[in-house]
């Protein structure tokens, strides 16, 4: 990508396909900005200009001053333009990419190139997420674990198990402490909700390892409406419903196929599913065959073990 569209830094997080909240980021930013990472993420979520949740195509900062993150932070570090691309399909939002340029602006041909590869990359990102769904067969970890953030999103306290989770979510370099990027993202989404920028819930599901999925949520401590209160971010095993919902999106199931899968997770048989969905038993079987084909499974037991993460 960089050979066609030169850039000086980038931020490329995966997102929860339903809430669009960032999870695992791949990034390369100037070292002086690392201490300001919580502020950078917070400002990104509060910036309405070219926000990934509203982008229809790749765009640059035509008027940089409209961008809160540029105006309050990136301008001081020499960033002159940002090209933003979202990776979204009819099944959800799978990530977004910000390319930063120091000196000069992104050209129309460069934006066209980025827009042209977005569909293929979206498919690849969704398929990569689909491949994480395996039967874990192991016991769930203790939870929830908690990370306590100050109003400016600096880490204040954490439960003993939090460090272990963060080490696995985003492994740091040798001798470095883990960066709680996923926690910063859900906390920033909480602030965006409070400011009326985006009303999606401040939560995100993220793959940990070996088929395990976690759910992160953010909430203010203390009385409602206190923007100066601390923020608690909880990290716990994704519930069966939360996990199955992402599973269905990752494998591209239709609305009816997803509904059928949800019925199956309750233990319902074909007759019960047909009655609940007002379908014939034969139609249910046809939907099942389609689900098996899309998920690469051959029977209900294997399908459910992958969707639910059970052995």
TrEMBL record:
The keyword Iron does not apply. Residues 246-311 form the HTH luxR-type domain. The keyword DNA-binding applies. Transmembrane segments: none annotated. Keywords: DNA-binding, Transcription, Transcription regulation. This is Helix-turn-helix transcriptional regulator. It comes from Nonomuraea marmarensis.
């Amino acid at each position: 990508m960089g050979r066609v569209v030169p850039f000086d830094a980038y931020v490329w997080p995966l997102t929860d396909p339903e809430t669009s909240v960032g999870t695992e980021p791949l990034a390369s930013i100037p070292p002086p900005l690392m201490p300001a990472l919580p502020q950078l993420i917070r400002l990104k979520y509060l910036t309405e200009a070219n926000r990934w949740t509203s982008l229809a195509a790749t765009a640059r900062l035509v008027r940089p001053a409209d961008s809160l993150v540029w105006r309050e932070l990136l301008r001081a570090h020499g960033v002159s333009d940002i090209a933003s691309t979202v990776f979204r399909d009819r099944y959800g939002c799978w990530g977004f990419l910000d390319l930063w340029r120091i000196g000069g602006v992104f050209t129309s041909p460069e934006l066209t190139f980025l827009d042209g590869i977005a569909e293929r990359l979206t498919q690849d990102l969704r398929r990569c997420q689909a491949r994480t769904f395996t039967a874990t067969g192991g016991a769930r970890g203790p939870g929830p674990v908690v990370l306590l953030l100050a109003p400016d999103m600096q880490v204040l306290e954490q439960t003993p198990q939090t460090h272990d989770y963060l080490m696995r979510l985003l492994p740091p370099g040798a001798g470095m402490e883990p960066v709680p990027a996923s926690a910063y993202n859900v906390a920033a989404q909480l602030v965006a909700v409070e400011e009326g920028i985006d009303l999606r819930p401040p939560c995100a599901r993220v793959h940990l390892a070996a088929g395990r999925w976690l759910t992160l949520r953010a909430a203010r401590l203390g009385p409602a409406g206190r923007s100066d209160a601390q923020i608690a971010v909880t990290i716990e095993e994704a519930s069966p419903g939360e996990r199955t919902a992402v599973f269905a999106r990752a494998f591209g199931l239709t609305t009816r196929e997803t509904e059928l899968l949800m019925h199956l997770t309750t233990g319902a048989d074909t007759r019960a599913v047909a009655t609940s969905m007002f379908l014939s038993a034969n139609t249910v079987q046809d939907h099942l065959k389609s689900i098996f084909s899309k998920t690469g499974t051959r029977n209900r037991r294997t399908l459910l073990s992958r969707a639910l993460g059970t052995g």
